[in-house]
Structures are given as C-alpha cells and as structure tokens.
Amino acid sequence: MAMALTRRNLHLLCPIFSARLLTTASTSPITIETSLPFTAHNIDPPSRSVQTSPQELLSFFRDMALMRRMEIAADSLYKAKLIRGFCHLYDGQEAVAIGMEAAITRKDCIITAYRDHCLFLGRGGTLLEAFAELMGRKDGCSKGKGGSMHFYKKDGGFYGGHGIVGAQIPLGCGLAFAQKYSKDDNVSFMMYGDGAANQGQLFEALNMAALWDLPAILVCENNHYGMGTAEWRAAKSPAYFKRGDYVPGLKVDGMDALAVKQACKFAKEHALKNGPIILEMDTYRYHGHSMSDPGSTYRTRDEISGIRQERDPVERVRKLILAHDIATEKEMKDNEKEVRKEVDEAIAKAKEIPSPDPSELFTNVYVKGLGVEAFGADRKELRAVLP
Amino acid sequence: MAASFGVSSAAAANAVKSPALSPPSLPVIRSEARPISCRVNKSRKAGKITTKAVAAQAENPASAASKPGHEVLLFEALREGLEEEMERDPRVCIFGEDVGHYGGSYKVSKGLADKYGDLRVLDTPIAENSFTGMAVGAAMTGLRPVVEGMNMGFLLLAFNQISDNCGMLHYTSGGQFTIPTVIRGPGGVGRQLGAEHSQRLESYFQSIPGIQMVACSTPYNAKGLMKAAIRSENPVVLFEHVLLYNLKERIPDEEYVVSLEEAEMVRPGEHVTILTYSRMRYHVMQAAKTLVNKGYDPEVIDIRSLKPFDLYTIGNSIKKTHKVLIVEECMRTGGIGASLTAAINENFNDYLDAPIVCLSSQDVPTPYAGTLEEWTVVQPGQIVTAVEQLCR
What subunit structure does UniProt give (chain A) (predicted)? Predict the structure, then answer.
C-alpha cells in the first residue's frame, strides 16, 4: 500500500530532497480522528478514526501544496493574458481530490465538471501538460484544443473536463454501466457542484444507477455558491446528501483530506455491493467562480479569510505532520519552496511550446472510417474535384 | 478480393472472423460504377466497383445460382443488422425505451432481449437526456451502444448530450476518446401523429461537428447502414421513417455492409438530377414514372449520407445533366436541402444550366388533419411540375 502510494505520486515529485523525505518516512500506521463526524442518510456512517501513515500525510501535503501552487500560478497567468477564456480554480478544495485519490486506483473512473485542473493532476497528469493546455499549446493534454474546461486523461481514468453544468452526470452513469457490463469491480465517481445538484439529469441518472445497481458514486462538491448564488437561494433543500431519497448519502467535511479518504473508501465498498451512494463534500473555494468573478460581491472577505484560517486543507495536514513529529517546520518550508520551483519550471517550459499547427483545426473531428474519403460538409478539408 | 469491393463469400467469411475492424477485408458495396481510389491504410486501392446497389446482388456469383437472398420487411432488416453486429462484437449494446421486453415500439429489437439479456438490451426509463449521456459515457470506455429514440423528436431532449458530448468529445479530448455510438429512431411525417411526433431532426443536427448522419430508405440499405454505423468509430445518427418500416424487399443472405458516406444511384438518367432521401425517394420514383411517360429521363440519386454529403456522386451527376432538383422532407428553412444547395452552388456552379430547385416540406408544425398533413410534404405531382419547369 505504501509502495503503491510512492509509485503513484512519484510523477508529482521533484526527484530530490522531498523524495528522499517521503521514501524514508515511515509507513507505520497512525490513527487520526476526522475533524467532524459523518452525517449519514439511510446508511450507517463509517467510523471517524482514519488509518494513515507518516508517508501518506507527507504525500498529502506535497500534492496539495502542488495543486495550490498550480492554481495560484494559473491565476497570475490569466491576469497576464496567457490563459484566456474561462478559468475555474480549485484552490481551497484540494482535499477532495487528494482524499479521493488515496482511496481508489487508476482503474476507477473520475468524471467532473469544469473545475478540473487539480483532479487531472491527481489522476496522473503532469504540470507541463496542464499548463500547456491552459495556454493553448500543442503539447497540452488535449493538444491545446480543449482548454481549461476540457482536461482528459484516458490512461489515468480521468474522463474530463465538461463545460455544461450537469451534463457529466449521465456520462458518469455510462462509465459505471460499462464497469458493470465488463464486471471489473471498479467504481465511477461523478463529481458535480451544489449548483448542478438542481439539474434534472442528476435525478434521472440517480434513478437509473439505483435501478440497475450501477457502481456509481455521486460526489457533490458543495462549495456553497453556484457562481454567485448561495446554496440557500437556489435549493429548497440544501442537504444534498439527502436528496437521493432511496439512495443513501453521506455528508463529509471536504476540507479534511483524511475524512474524504475514509468516505471514498467506504463509498467504494458500498457501491460495489449495493449500488449508488451520494457523498456531499462540504468544501469551499477561495477564488471566485472563475477568473472573471471577483468572488466578493456575494460573500464577505471575512468569510473567506475565516475559512482560510480555520479550515484550510493544506494547513490542517501541516499541523498534523508537525504534531506527530513527522517533519520539521524547516523541512515543510523547503518542501513548499521546491513545489514553487517545480511549478515555475513547468510554466517556463510550457511557455516555450508552440501553438498547435493550423492543420490541427481539422484533425480529430472524425475518426477516419472505412477508408472512404469524405466529401462535402467538411469540405474545407477536402474539396470535391472531378476528373 | 483485394482489388475489388463487392460481395463475395470469401470476403464475408473474412469479415465475420475478426471483431477488430480492419478496413481492407470488409466487404463494402459501392453503388457507382466508377473506378475510385481509396486511401485504405496508406495504400492506394483502385476499386473496381459494381454498378447500382440493386444490380450488385445479381452480379454476385455465389447467389446468382438460385433465387438470391431472402425477403424481409425494413424493420426486420434493421433487426437483422443489429443482431448480426451484436453477435459479432460483445461490446454492442442497445439502450432505449421499451426496446427489451416490449421488443421495441416498431419491433426493431424484438427478441433481442431474450437472446442477449437485460443488460445488453437495456430498457431505460423515460429520460432521453440521461440515457443518451449514459451511452456516450459508456462509449468513452469502449462499449458500442446503439441508442434508440422511440421517436426522433424525443431526442431533442438529448440535444446537449448529442451535440456537446457525442459530437465534440473526440475533438476536445485531443483524440483520446472515440464515441462509437449509433443514435437511431423513426422520424418524419405520416400516420397523422401530430406536430410533436412528426419531427425531422436532420436539419437540427446537421451543424453538429463530429457526427455523421445517414438516412435509410430500403431494407437493403437499412441493414447495410445499420451495420456500417455500428462498426464506425464515429457517432452516427441513423434516420429511419415511420412510414417505411413495412417495405418489403429481397436482400442478400451473405453479410454485407454499405458505405456510410456514399449516395445511391436509384435510376440513372440524362435530363435532370433529382436528389432525395428517405421517404421522398418513393414520391420521386412515383413522379419519375409519370415523367418517363412524358418523355423525360430523370436521374434519381438517394443521397443517403446527410452529413457529409457525397459530393463525388452528386457532382458527377450534375456534370452530366446540368440541372438539379432537390426533394426532401425537411423544413425549407435551414434544412438539408438548403445546405445541399449551398454545397452544390459552391462546388459545381460552372456545371449548372439553371438555378437549383429545392422542394421541401412547408415551414409549419405538422397538422393532424389528413388532407393538411398531405400538403405539408412534397407530393409527386409537385415533383413532376418542377421537373417540367426545370427542363423547359
């Protein structure tokens, strides 16, 4: 388990100082209590005591610091007009991505909406691919043709990256269906926000998943604001974990990576045996909905800084590490400096990558079929020329 | 076999063996008697092709011996195609309302649930948006779902999934995911079903980049197109017509697949090119009888492939006749005819002696009353008049 952790996270690591710290850190189990108990609907909640290890805590810190740094760097790049269009940042919500990764394998599927940069990293994407895609360069994960909202990683089990709110939930249902069809004991996590929780297709997908006992786990990342609308202004019942009615639900403190890990592990076991379950992650985003939203017109700065002081996920893990004497303050600070350097290097490299070739405009529209040349509607690619 | 496309038992045997699609060994019927060069797996193949699709059956030595083939109705042909593909590839599955236990509202999937089970022939709840999305998600992992819209008009509810996810995921993921879905269902005017159940979605879907659209019109091309659509790696929308399900025709016993991007030459001629698809083909053929009696020689082409258009076949025909009449069941505004007119004007303007005439359905919601419904669509008399005016 510990070795798997190291291998999985190695791509995220700068192969010098901290790697040594991580590999030499002990894997002896520590039991830590989650900050809050789980609230359950139609099911018995899992225990508050989570099994972890010093190595895991260090990797949590490292990965979350990397994600945090990446999002903040994306903020600066956007303001420098190197990233255009929409850019939805995930800082504040890193614990959800990290806790989930710790509980599952790459064979399980994750599908999410447009706040997908950090989930992409968690699934094995590299910083270079992420920044190149954000800046629209040809070596981005989607060859520069997708953008911020369309990160995908097929071999990592990451199915995107979708712009239309709620549309990814039926897709996730399809992923779970395919897993049941091929009987491979894996689960699908379909992630959506409190805004999307009011979409009809969610309930349609829930009905189908429950009807056919699909291994589907619906994760509501409740950051309490659907763009500018607070959850109590959009939903009659903001208890999203209860909305499944016949589908059991669990409310989790989404700022506590260990609680998320416990909940996801529990959910995976449940889904493989009994069908769908809803996880509501109580989390928070520091930035606005996207870079075009200041994020302060519908909430107070005190609220944001309050959460940052009391519930910040990275700080919580740092405190845990220091409390259990796993690393010193200085080592942690060095860790962060390395992360910063890694991100800066990735950005510098990404800036050098050229834009996609103009011919890429027409590639990947179709998969070339039975060898018959297509004329007509895509005639810019091929104009009909008669002999 | 290597140099010619055409049905031969050897080719059919080859095709049945391998579920992994390898283009050169697949028997593909082309309806044009012209040598074409097809870039297949980087080697240029000059295909010696058979003549009209109908004639192709007679040329086949294997079946020329006795009365070739077997008679089927169009919905049975669709079912045969579906069943053969499900047999051949375990990843093919069907999603739709009442496709399983009920057997399909037009009996296209009758008996398949008993044979393949409830998971492979999935009875979905009435949630078009979600089960179409589910099909796309399943296709992303490698399954090959066939989605049935009980009536094409219901798929308007799934428009977001079809356009954004089905059509665009291959592009926005930089080629990582292919979406080999088939979306099929009956549409069109007939049977006095009323405005909401007589939709023609070709015009709405035609702008979606990344999907292919085909319309079947005979049992022969219905089976062939169904099989080709399932084998295609691209999302394909297969348009059927409510009134054509009981058409009877003799189709070959051997396995065959029809090209998705190709038009069908129904009746070669010299005076005017009539382009049509789906049910209007029969109105056109009825008008053609009258026209022949009056001394005209129309060339009738069933375009079959609505996206992309087979401008090769169409262009060669225009080069010969210099006049075009488009007869379609779509609405006038923004319909397939409108796009086809633009495409022909852009590409073959030099060959045209007269402006293109496009006969389409009226831009009205389809009324219930029988007489009114008749006048919504193009009638053979109007086609005859149009040809006479064009050929003056």
Answer: Tetramer of 2 alpha and 2 beta subunits.
Q: Check if the beta carbon of residue B74 is closer than 8 Å to that of residue B218.
A: yes
Task: Give the mutation candidate from B32, B37, B120, B130 for the A interface (greatest A CB count, under 10 A).
Answer: B130
Give the pair of three-digit tokens for residue A313.
């996920």
Residue A158 DSSP code: B
- Which residues lie below 8 Å from residue B186, measured CB to CB, with a gap of 6+? B106, B151, B152, B240, B241, B242, B245
Local structure of B28: helix, strand or coil: strand
Strand partners, A153: A158
Contacts of B137 in chain A (CB under 8 A): 111, 159, 170-175, 177-178
Contacts of A357 in chain B (CB under 8 A): none
pLDDT per residue as tens digits for the range A268-322 = 999 999 999 999 999 999 999 999 998 899 999 999 999 999 999 999 999 999 9
Residue in A148, A192, A360, A364 to test binding to B, most B beta-carbons within 10 Å: A364
In the numeric block, which tokens belong to residue A153? 């990683």
* ipTM reported for the complex, 2 dp: 0.85
CA atoms of A215 and A218, how far apart (whole Å): 10
DSSP letter at A353 equals S
Please state, in angstroms and rounded to a whole number, the distance separating the CA atoms of residues B317 and B310. 11
Q: Which of B16, B22, B17 is nearest to B2 (CA)?
A: B22
pTM for the whole structure: 0.84
What averages of pLDDT result for each successive group of 10 residues across chain B (392 residues)? 36 38 42 37 34 38 63 96 95 94 92 94 95 96 95 94 93 93 94 90 91 95 94 94 95 91 93 96 96 96 92 91 95 92 91 95 92 93 95 86
Between CA B163 and CA B186 the distance in angstroms is: 19
Report residue A13 CA to chain centroid gap: 18
Closest approach of A44 to chain B, Cα-based (Å): 30
Q: Do B172 and A145 touch (CB under 8 A)?
A: yes
In this predicted model, what pLDDT tens digit does every residue of A165-212 receive, in sequence order?
999 999 999 999 999 999 989 999 999 999 999 999 999 999 999 999
Cβ distance B131 to A208 less than 8 Å, yes or no, reads: yes
Among the partner residues A142, A145, A376, nearest to B309 by beta-carbon distance: A376
Residue pair B325/B383 in contact by the 8 Å Cβ criterion: yes
Tell me the pairing of strands A277-282 and B28-29: unpaired
pLDDT digits (tens, 9 = 90+) for A110-123: 999 999 999 999 99
**To 5 degrees, how large is the angle CA B49–CA B53–CA B55?**
90
**A369 vs B contacts (CB less than 8 Å):** 232-234, 260-261
Q: What share of chain A is helix, strand, coil (3-state, %, to 5)?
A: 45, 10, 45
Q: How far is CA B237 from CA B121, B183, B214, B226, in A?
A: 19, 5, 6, 10
C-alpha A359/C-alpha B175 separation (Å) is 14
**Contact between A55 and A22 (Cβ < 8 Å):** yes
Instruction: State the DSSP code for B161.
Output: I
Sign (positive or negative) of CA dihedral B52, B55, B57, B59: negative
Helices (H), B142-240: 159-160, 168-172, 202-205, 219-231
CB neighbour list of residue A214: distance below 8 Å, 6 or more residues apart = A173, A176, A177, A179, A180, A188, A208, A275, A276
Structure tokens at B268: 């070669």
CA distance B387 to chain A (A): 25
Give the nearest partner residue to A174 out of B136, B171, B339, using CB atoms: B136
Q: What is the pLDDT of residue B308?
A: 85
In this complex, the residue of B24, B143, B171 whose CB is nearest that of residue A178 is: B143
Pair type for strands B182-187 and B144-148: parallel
> Would strands B305-307 and B212-215 be described as parallel, antiparallel, or unpaired?
antiparallel
The C-alpha angle B305, B311, B313, rounded to 5 degrees, equals 85
Separation between Cα atoms, residue B330 and residue B204, nearest integer Å:
10
